[in-house]
Amino acid sequence: MLREIYEQPDAIRRTLDLYVDGAGLKAKAWAALTDWASPEGEVLIAASGSSRHSGLAAEVTLEDLSGLAVDVEYASEYSCRGGQQMRHASVIVISQSGETSDTLAALREAQSHAQRTLAITNVAASSMAREATVSLPLAAGKEFAIPATKSFTCQLAVLYLLALNEGARRGHLNEAAVAARIAELHRLPLALESQLEAWEARMAELARKYRTASTFLYLGRGVHYPIAREGALKLKEASYVHAEGYPSGELKHGPNALVSDRVPVVIIATVDREDEDSRRRYEKTLQLLADLQTQRATVIAIANTGDEDVARLVSECVFVNPQSEHLFPIAEVIPLQLFSYFMALEHGVDVDSPRNLAKAVIES
Fold this sequence. Notes:
Elements: H1 2-6, H2 8-19, E1 20-21, E2 24-25, H3 27-30, E3 42-47, H4 49-66, E4 69-74, H5 75-81, E5 90-95, H6 101-112, E6 117-121, H7 127-131, E7 134-135, H8 150-169, H9 175-209, E8 215-220, H10 225-239, E9 242-247, E10 265-268, H11 276-294, E11 299-304, H12 308-311, E12 316-320, H13 328-346
Parallel strand pairs: 3-4, 3-5, 5-6, 6-7, 8-9, 8-10, 10-11, 11-12
Antiparallel strand pairs: 1-2
């Protein structure tokens, strides 16, 4: 797992090479998507586990950058719903293996209703990739550890590129805007590499310090909420420590009763200062942090490098170099992956093969 966490910058580079040419999108790589989206601009994403979390992030990114209307379903629920399909959305299925039984069933359910389908998998010859209307494979390389790391960040990268492609096609993004976002995406792997060692040392320190916590609450707003969900899932599956992910604004609607010295809060408090909506969410997060400080809560924050406003309100601060709002999730999740890894070591867990779990869920 640790090796695969460190492989993420190169995995993202390889994946970008499939779809990006210099400052633009490779026309050949995206040609098959010309008639993929439904005329109504509706998209449904079906996935499970970590892949569903990348789909939740894509819901925000696709809606913000391309104007598509996106819903995200648990694949296991979608394939069992039955009944009359009243809508005719295009369907995206996301799976590391491309063989996950629930997600494959969701794909086939959509195909049975003549819906256009798009598969995003890490195995180009997988069942989903072969059966979908269009396939966008990843180039993460084989992932051996059961907890998904490099496949997850590559999913986020491809889904971001999909948002750029759809944004350009639908007239929401001009050529200059797409080029600027692709240039930032090209810089991201180097930015990740420059922070990995510091993140590793910091998260090992925090795992030692908080190893006895009984539960963690992970919080995030907007596109960062799915990363809170993913951080909580990683902790559960890798270390057997209970955790739950919530939208930050939902803390006071019940979960706050759990907060104590035995239940730390992990909150994503980054901000894109060029984005008005991001700044508004950030201000709300600062207010929440001030309230938690009054409660004497133990809070671990993921924040912009050098953000003293967050640092003075929390128990621990983990810094991430600034990105644009919709690229932040790729950077934010890596410290959380490392935290789950070191928590597993603190609890004596075989992090690559946690109990009761398989790399590909082919029966359910």
